Amino acid sequence: MRCASALAVLALCPAAFAQDPVRGKLLYETHCGGCHYERVHERLRTKIKDMGDLRDEVSRWAPQTKREFTLDELEDMVQYLNESHYRLGLAPADRPLGGRAPEPATAR
Fold first, then answer.
1. Mean pLDDT throughout 62-74?
2. CA 10 from chain center: how many Å?
């Protein structure tokens, strides 16, 4: 299964990828936005607790688009979603009225 192998590579060496959140936003809006809107990422209850969880979810849902993403594209979407919504390992950002990002995961 392509997503499983992509996930394994992303988990082992995420820094090897371009990590272009601007391209990630474009990919997300083009291929993912048709089925759900971005507020789905602003739920108070989320199973996304760390970057591994976020990568898992992006890889899990990517096949629903009927498009094969490259590893770089998957990582770009992960970076976009993290910077725009989840803020894992990043400083808190001002959220628009009504939007709330989940609290960053604490180090274990």
1. 95
2. 12
